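Sample pair:
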Amino acid sequence: MTRSPAHRYGSPREPLKVWDIVVSTILLVLLAALAALMSFFGFFLAMASDPCGARDCSYDLIGTGLMTAVALPWVLLLGSSVITILLLAFRRIAFWVPLATAPLVIGSWFLGAAIAAAGVPSG
């Protein structure tokens, strides 16, 4: 019995997991939709400056919070996509990456809201 060249130089490659490719792709598309939705909601943080006519607000903090809520979901989506593609290329299970990133995308809005709220003094 002859052995293939892959057996001579190391272990053969893992078999291709088609189900993981399909599930990972669907989850990345859903994560992109979630990122778009959370980014859209991030623009509403501009309304945090509404009471600033009567108060002394920090427009820098409000703007930073707004940009955090708008941009961070896209940064997280990009990172998740790169990690998922690399895992799929190395034939490792990858569907968990978009699932683990989804709460972070949602949390990015809350982070932006907290930063924007810090720019509006209470009272």
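Helices lie at 5-9, 18-42, 59-89, 96-118.
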